[in-house]
Design goal:
The structure is a single chain. The protein is mainly α. The protein has one domain: Serine Threonine Protein Phosphatase 5, Tetratricopeptide repeat (Alpha Horseshoe). It is 76% helix and 0% strand. The longest helix has 24 residues. It starts with a helix and ends in a 15-residue tail after the last helix. It comes from Leucobacter triazinivorans. It is found in: Cell membrane.
Length: 206
């Protein structure tokens, strides 16, 4: 994934996480989804057109469309008031593709860190499927927190490392990335725990 594009993937995930948490309105979040979604469609198209048919370049660019179409779909839903079922089922498709791209990071690109990042994205998009297509509203806040945290730790942080030439990958770094992914999911589960419904008892006069 392009270093610059990854930075703004982090930004839009952060904003969408806040939207799911109810901090940012849907229409406010739609703008960022349009900007980044458009970029994540234009950039891979340019890469493919300039690749000269290089299979590695085409493969590397192809995954960007999954993000671009997701963000444009989010913007469409927020601006039109469309229901989320279609986006939810598309998210299931994206989750399955993300697993494949994660495996390819290990087998084709020798990049365990991004392999684990793709796996964490697969979990995220599967949560979108559960919330939007299967109506699991109890997972909304947990999905919001996971989206926000992944925006920071799988978007902004690795992008900055790549842009500054500080990115390192390998078996140890991949194991660390896996642990971080599990910790972030656990943290999101705790932070997004639905508030307990307090029983409203009518006081009995004595």
């Amino acid at each position: 994934m392009g270093h610059v594009g990854l930075l703004y993937v982090g930004a839009v995930l952060f904003v969408n996480g806040l939207m799911l948490l109810g901090t940012v309105s849907g229409k406010s979040a739609a703008a960022m989804n349009l900007f980044v979604g458009g970029m994540q469609v234009v950039f891979p198209t340019l890469i493919i057109l300039q690749s000269g048919g290089d299979p590695a370049a085409v493969l590397g660019a192809s995954g960007l469309y999954l993000f671009g179409f997701t963000y444009l779909y989010v913007a469409w839903n927020q601006l039109t008031g469309a229901s989320g079922e279609g986006l939810g089922w598309f998210s299931l498709f994206v989750a399955a593709c993300a697993v494949v791209y994660g495996i390819l990071q290990f087998t084709e690109f020798d990049d365990p860190v991004f392999g684990m990042i793709w796996f964490s994205w697969a979990v995220l998009w599967f949560l979108f499927f559960l919330v939007l297509a299967r109506g699991k509203d109890s997972l909304t806040r947990r999905t919001g927190w996971f989206t926000l945290l992944l925006g920071i730790f799988t978007g902004a942080v690795p992008a900055m490392l790549l842009l500054t030439g500080s990115y390192v990958t390998g078996a140890i770094e991949g194991a660390v990335a896996a642990v971080i992914g599990v910790v972030l999911l656990g943290l999101a589960w705790v932070l997004g725990k639905p508030a307990a419904v307090q029983s409203q008892e009518v006081p009995v006069e004595r």
